[in-house]
Amino acid sequence: MKKTYEKPALTKGAQLQAIAAAVYSHDPV
Fold first, then answer.
1. The pTM is what?
2. CB of 2 within 8 A of CB of 14?
3. Out of the domains of life, which is the source (predicted)?
4. Within 13 A of 22's CA, how many CA atoms are on the CB side?
């Protein structure tokens, strides 16, 4: 899914944020 994201850093950051968000949503410790 690298259509809107031209920079790989953004893609990695987006993935990390998505994972973190999912983890926090599932386990908001």
1. 0.44
2. no
3. Bacteria
4. 6
How far apart CA 10 and CA 26 sit, in angstroms, is: 24
For 11, other C-beta atoms within 10 Å of its C-beta total 14
- Report residue 10's pLDDT band, with 50, 70 and 90 as the boundaries: low
- Could you tell me if 11 and 5 are in contact, meaning their C-beta atoms sit under 8 angstroms apart? yes
Which tokens go with 7? 């920079």
DSSP 20: H
Distances (CA, A) of 7 to 11, 15, 17, 19, 22: 7, 13, 16, 19, 23
